[in-house]
Design a protein that fits this description.
The protein has about 130 residues and is mainly alpha-helical. About 70% of the residues lie in helices and about 5% in strands. The longest helix has about 90 residues. The termini are far apart. About 0% of the residues are buried. It is found in: Cell membrane; Golgi apparatus membrane; Membrane, Caveola.
């Protein structure tokens, strides 16, 4: 069933909460050789599911809308900061780094390259020989 573009049947289409296992079989299990009476097990199942569903519905009734509003606000703030602050700041940083990279490259080419070329010329005449005596 769809209501204003929201799927009311499959409420986790991206499997975000696959790790949340809340069914009776995911929470309670009796090993072989340790079984309770069948009536206890089936009534435990019924009570577990009933309480889980009732409490979940009550909690979402009282708190779900407020929590959804909070998370909507939180993601709006995150989006705002990324769109208006972080991304432009990162762009400025990248522009400045490009300038600094060119500046340091020029400095190295102008000052250190001649120095090292001169050192290389001075030391190019050195000959090393190994003698074994």
């Amino acid at each position: 069933m769809m209501s204003s573009g929201i799927d009311l049947v499959n409420r986790d289409p991206n499997n975000i909460n696959d790790h949340v296992k809340v069914c009776f079989e995911d929470v309670l299990a009796e090993p072989e050789g340790g079984h309770s009476f069948d009536c206890v097990w089936s009534n435990s199942h019924m009570c577990f599911e009933c309480c889980k569903n009732c409490w979940y519905k009550l909690l979402t009734l009282f708190f779900g809308i407020c929590i959804a509003m909070y998370w909507g606000y939180e993601f709006a703030v995150i989006t705002f900061w990324h769109v208006w602050i972080y991304t432009p700041a990162l762009r400025v940083y990248m522009i400045e780094c490009g300038f600094l990279q060119k500046f340091w490259h020029s400095c190295l080419q102008c000052y250190l390259r001649p120095l090292f070329e001169a050192c290389g010329f001075c030391f190019s005449g050195i000959r090393v020989t190994n003698s074994t005596e």
